[in-house]
Amino acid sequence: MIKYSILLMVSASIISCTSSSDGFDKNTDESTPPASLEASAPVDTRDTITVIATGADMSEMRFDTKLIKVPAQKEITIALVNQSTDATMPHNFVVIKDGTANEVGQAGYKHLDNAYVSPQDKNVLGHTPLAQINETVYLTFTTPIAGEYQFICSYPGHWGMMKGSFITE
Ligand SMILES: [Cu+2]
């Protein structure tokens, strides 16, 4: 019994040392890219646009782009890759009418069963399911008529930081 508890203590301290040093390394790695990140327009000729969500917590969470330009009224696919390292960071990708982020987010709050998007929401033009960490989810839809729209993550509390412009032309 004594041997067992010593073993337990030893392994517990190894685990905590390992995980804390890992955590620091990861934080350092992740704090580097945002500095070099700039708004870009990843128009993908293959009709699939990949968007990456990163960040270990609500202060770090972000999409890797703030501007997406696509042809109007054309079928495209958005691939959302969730590279977040923390299991409390699911994300989605929701295309909305310009300026409706708060409305859409608040309306979606109760709809976990629909990826935090209200099924009746007329401000929503398309959305992915929720992507858990290390997961990729897809939205295939026909883009709206030429204009300015937005994209957000409608997970509760995320849309303030996780948003960008979605331009069709
Ligand atoms: Cu999110």
H/E element string?
HHEEEEEHEEEE
Query: Helical content, roughly?
Result: 10-25%
What is the spatial order of strands in the main beta sheet? 3-9-8-5-6
Arithmetic mean of pLDDT: 82
Query: Strand-residue fraction?
Result: 25-35%
Describe the biggest sheet? 5 strands, mixed
The total number of structural domains is 2
CATH architecture of the largest domain: Sandwich
N→C terminal distance: 71 Å
Please report the number of helical segments.
Answer: 3
Q: Which blocks of ≥5 consecutive residues have pLDDT under 50?
A: 1-44
* CATH homologous group name of the largest domain: Cupredoxins -  blue copper proteins
Task: Tell me the overall shape.
Answer: globular
Given the helix and strand composition, which structural class is it? alpha+beta
CATH C-level class of the largest domain is Mainly Beta
Number of strands: 9
Radius of gyration computed on alpha carbons: 19 Å
CATH topology of the largest domain: Immunoglobulin-like
Concise overview:
The protein is an alpha+beta fold and 169 residues long. It is built from three helices and nine strands; from the N terminus they run H-H-E-E-E-E-E-H-E-E-E-E.
